[in-house]
Amino acid sequence: MENLKFSVILPVYNVAPFLEECLQSLINQSYSNLEILCVNDGSPDNSLEILQKYAALDARIKVFDRENQGSGRSRNFGIEQSSGDYLSFIDPDDWVDRDLYKKLYDFIVEKSPDVVEFFYKNYYDATGEVTPGKHCQAIAKKCGMDMAVRESYSWKDCKNILCKFQSPCWNKVYKRSFILENKIEFSDHPTGQDIAFWHGVLFFAEKIDILHQELYFYRIRQGSAITSLKKKNLIYLFDQIDRTARTIERAGVRQALEKDFAAYRLRLVYDADKKSAPEYRDAIARQAKKYLSTGDYFKFQLKKNINRFLRTVFNFQKHFGGGRKTRITVLGIKFDI
Questions:
Q1: How open is the CA angle 114-117-118, to the nearest 5 degrees?
Q2: Fewest CB within 10 angstroms: 47, 185, 258, 323, which?
Q3: Burial environment of residue 250 by CB neighbours within 10 A (0 to 12, 13 to 18, 19 or more)
């Protein structure tokens, strides 16, 4: 594996203030056999100009300029254009340790894995604070599996696998042939595009090997796709249910996950209703009848109406209008304290 090549894929959209830091962390890697595939997703800022400047400086950088289609489709396009042995997905407002790919190379030469997961640190843009990522602790609490003491894991090691075990695409590298042979791809949903990809990786991989080092810096900032999510039409979550169903069917694990899948389906239907604007809820309710059993549809309606009633009768939340306050609502009457 002396010529092991990493294809690094960046879906770029409106990240000009952070993009150079990300690119610098890639071109200055101690392991140099990389191709850096930057897919500009119709950025309205000067992200494209920054990409073109760096491409002129480093022949490993390839820039693709496309109309806005979302990060899921951009990553899929990057996979199509890749030629490396392993795929790496980097968010362009983040950056990586200088030795990331050298350490991955050493690990891969030793183990020849399909998937390698490594750890990360959180960087808070507003304060500059850096803290260890708490993914391991969250998985231990939610799924009963302590990744901090394991060398590898598979879906069989976890409980609540569909509802509780979510994992990003950027803290792993993937053997390209494994991704292509199993037809694993990202969805084009407005958010959560990597869930379909993650489920494919999780259920097709015999195991996921763990490199116990924090090598990625995940930037937490105001205005990102996650932190700026507002109530909208989440009816696309029904497509996510269908994608998950097809994945576990193709992987031959549908029967083993029947109870987990039923709970997952109910949760996504409830989330679609809860987090969507009121004008979309009738359409979501009609879809819910098609997707849920009679018993689960009753549970959905019961939970939805109880929670709405409780929010009307009594609600407690932080409120930032006119300064930081706590707002309490009792029988529709609001009190700021």
A1: 145
A2: 323
A3: middle
How far CA 129 is from CA of 125, 209, 218, in Å, comes to: 8, 29, 11
Give the C-alpha distances (Å, rounded to integers) separating 72 from 168, 181, 187, 302.
13, 19, 5, 34
User: Exposed (0-12), middle (13-18) or buried (19+): which is 156, by Cβ within 10 Å?
Assistant: exposed
- State CA 279 to chain mean position distance: 28
**Which residues are within 8 A (CB) of 230 and not within 5 positions of it... i.e. 6 or more apart?**
none
Tens digit of each residue's pLDDT (9 = 90 or more) over 158-170:
999 999 999 999 9
Q: What angle do CA 267, 272, 277 make, to 5 degrees?
A: 150
Q: Average pLDDT in the 186-205 region?
A: 94
Residue that has been written with the tokens 């006119």 in this structure = 322
Helix (H, G, I), strand (E, B) or coil at 61: strand
Sequential DSSP letters for 122-163: EEETTT--EEE--HHHHHHHHHS--GGG-SEE-GGG-SSHHH
162-199 per-residue burial string, b: 16 or more CB within 10 A, e: under 16: bbbbbbbbbbbbbbbebbeebebbbbbbebbbbbbbbb
Interior/surface letters 6-36, b for 16+ CB within 10 angstroms, e for the rest: bbbbbbbbbbbebbeebbebbeebebeebbb
Q: Give alpha helix (H) positions in the chain.
A: 16-27, 47-57, 71-81, 100-111, 135-143, 161-164, 176-181, 194-204, 237-250, 258-275, 281-291, 294-313
Q: CA–CA separation, 183 vs 247, rounded Å?
A: 10
**pLDDT mean over 126-147:** 93
Nearest to 107 by CA among 99, 116, 98: 116
Other CB atoms within 10 A of residue 227 CB: 9
Token pair for 165: 């075990």
pTM higher than 0.90, yes or no? no
